[in-house]
Structures are given as structure tokens and as C-alpha cells.
Write a structure and sequence with these properties.
The complex is a heterodimer of chains A (172) and B (158). Helix content of chain A is 40%, strand content 16%. Chain A has 172 residues and is an alpha/beta fold. Classes of the chains: A alpha/beta (172), B mainly alpha (158).
């Protein structure tokens, strides 16, 4: 058991580390060229057409965000491919009917088997779990960078689709 | 002497504890560097954990790596050794809880433990095992370091 003297020494040391570390961090951040604002805003935001999108989404620059209604409409069209950016386990447990799985976190592994079958003119709708995930956006950016001309993001994702009782399927 | 006692003696040997201290210290200093260099990416990772409220994310992302850095450095040199090992053990418990919460939620996670690069992402369960190992080192150092080869002991002797 630590003596009271030792205990106060431990508390003092802990405070020194926390305060020194935090102070250096804040000072370093102030002068570093890669510094960030201390009070960030990370809440999801709303686009000009009232869609809820992740904080990092840049309207006009990122692939267009679409609503559930629009996704439903596109679902009727045979020319649209839904791409699910979630992990294969989640995909197998349930996904938009006819969607293909291209997990963003394992893009390198899965893309060679998928992308050659997708012409760059193909209309693609990327989605992930819901507004709490960002892999749909990251995947859509990746695809747009690779030359895909018509990529959209359905931020409502699997949650919104399932809750609306739309066509789903399980397995591969 | 029973085998158990022998084992206890080996594992609390001051030289082994010194090794634990150095390993843990270097690990924390190393882990802080990439996060210090890329605060924006690290803040995004903290955001993805979905645990801290939005207004605390950046402050946390700016200060945590430096607290890790200072604690790791203190551990290596043996300054406030108990405090540094206690704080590091506490941080590891926080990391374990944070990773577990997200494993339970099933959220795709970039750990942000050593690197802010998503390519370095690992699966949650192996992260937990690793953090528990570090936690073991931290607890051992806290209880058994006995000021062996520490800067504080060196200064006290003068």
C-alpha cells in the first residue's frame, strides 16, 4: 500500500503529465501548420435539399447525396447498381436487393474482382449502414477518383432502406 | 521453492520490470508521433468512435497524443514512474472500453492507435488483446518498479 506521502506524489506526477501534455499539445497546435481549430463541429449537417449528411461532406464537390425516395426510384431502374460499402458480414446479414458488396475498408482486396465488371459510365449508388457511417462517402469518392462518372451516395443507407420495408435479401 | 513463487520472483524482477517500462514507454512515444503529425485525420478517427461529444473531439485529438508522449517519455527515463504507468494504464482501460463499445455496436473502425492511415486498420478483437498486454505491463510497472534505474532515484541520491 502506498503511504499518504507517496500517494500525493503519484497524484502530483499524474497532474504534471496531464497538464504538461495538454499545454504542449495546445501550444504546438497553435503554431503547427497542420493545426486544427480546438472547438470542432462534427455534427451531421443538412444539405440545401434537406438531406442529412456527415460533417465531412462537401456539397457540390463530393458525389451527389440522394434521398430515400430517389434511391427507391432508381431501384426500379435496371441501369442502376447499388454498391454496399459495409463489411461482408454485415452485407450477408442483409442488404438492398441486388446490391453488390465492395467493402471500403478492404477496397484493395475486393475491387479487382468487381471493378472490371463495372463500366465507368455505370450509374452507381453507394451506401453503408446509415447517417452514422461514412464509408459510403469514402467509397463514392474513391470510385469518382477512379473515373466513374455517375456516382451518388445514399446516406440514409441500410437503416433507412430496411426501416422503410423495401426489398432486401441476405447472403452473398 | 514452489514453481509459483519462482515465477512470481522472475516476473517481478527489477530488470524485467525495467524492460517492461522501456517497452511501454517507447510504445507510447511511438504511438503519439503519427497522431501529432496528423491532427485532422486523428480527430476524424476520434469522431468515428462516436463516443465524445462533437465540441470535445478536436481538443481531445490535439492534447491526447502529447499526454501519451510525455507519459511515455517519463516512463522511459523514470520520472514520476508510478504516475506515468498509472496514467498509461488508465488510458489503456479507456481505449479497451472504447474499442469494445464499437465492437459491440458493430461499427467499422479505424483504431487510430499507432497510425492515422486507414490502411493500417486492424480488427477490433486483436486490438483488445494487444491493449490488454500493454495494460499488464503498465500494472506491473506501477506496482513493482521500485525506482530501479529511474532518473528520480538518480537525482535523489545526489
Amino acid at each position: 500500500m502506498p503511504t499518504p506521502l507517496k500517494l500525493s506524489h503519484i497524484i502530483l506526477g499524474t497532474l504534471v503529465i496531464i497538464l504538461a501534455g495538454s499545454a504542449i499539445g495546445v501550444i504546438y497546435n497553435t503554431f503547427s501548420p497542420s493545426g486544427i481549430t480546438l472547438k470542432g463541429n462534427w455534427s451531421p449537417k443538412t444539405t440545401s435539399d434537406s438531406l442529412i449528411v456527415p460533417y465531412g461532406y462537401v456539397e457540390g464537390q463530393d458525389p451527389p447525396a440522394i434521398s430515400l425516395d430517389y434511391a427507391m426510384m432508381k431501384f426500379q431502374s435496371k441501369n442502376t447498381v447499388f454498391v454496399d460499402a459495409r463489411y461482408p458480414e454485415d452485407f450477408k446479414a442483409g442488404h438492398v436487393k441486388g446490391a453488390i458488396n465492395l467493402p471500403y475498408e478492404e477496397f484493395e482486396k475486393y475491387s479487382p474482382g468487381i471493378l472490371p465488371h463495372l463500366p465507368t459510365a455505370q450509374e452507381i449508388i453507394a451506401y453503408c449502414d446509415g447517417t452514422e457511417c461514412e464509408t459510403s462517402l469514402l467509397l463514392a469518392r474513391e470510385l469518382a477518383d477512379l473515373g466513374y462518372e455517375d456516382v451518388k451516395v445514399f446516406f440514409g443507407g441500410w437503416q433507412e432502406w430496411r426501416n422503410a420495408g423495401l426489398s432486401v435479401e441476405t447472403g452473398d | 521453492m514452489s514453481l509459483l513463487k519462482l515465477l512470481a520472483r522472475i516476473i517481478t524482477d527489477k530488470r524485467l520490470i525495467l524492460l517492461f517500462r522501456i517497452i511501454l514507454g517507447i510504445t507510447f512515444v511511438y504511438a503519439s508521433l503519427d497522431k501529432i503529425a496528423h491532427p485532422e485525420q486523428f480527430a476524424r478517427i476520434v469522431y468515428n468512435y462516436k463516443i465524445l461529444p462533437g465540441f470535445l473531439i478536436n481538443l481531445f485529438a490535439v492534447t491526447l497524443p502529447w499526454v501519451e508522449f510525455v507519459a511515455g517519455l517519463f516512463l522511459i527515463f523514470g520520472i514520476f514512474t508510478e504516475s506515468a504507468s498509472l496514467l498509461i494504464s488508465f488510458l489503456l482501460v479507456v481505449f479497451i472500453v472504447a474499442i469494445s463499445i464499437n465492437l459491440f455496436r458493430g461499427i467499422n473502425l479505424n483504431c487510430g492507435c499507432f497510425s492515422t492511415d486507414p490502411a493500417g486498420a486492424k480488427h477490433g478483437a486483436s486490438l483488445l488483446v494487444r491493449d490488454f498486454l500493454y495494460l499488464f505491463l503498465g500494472i506491473m510497472v506501477f506496482f513493482f518498479n521500485r525506482s530501479f534505474a529511474t532518473l528520480s532515484a538518480l537525482l535523489r541520491r545526489r
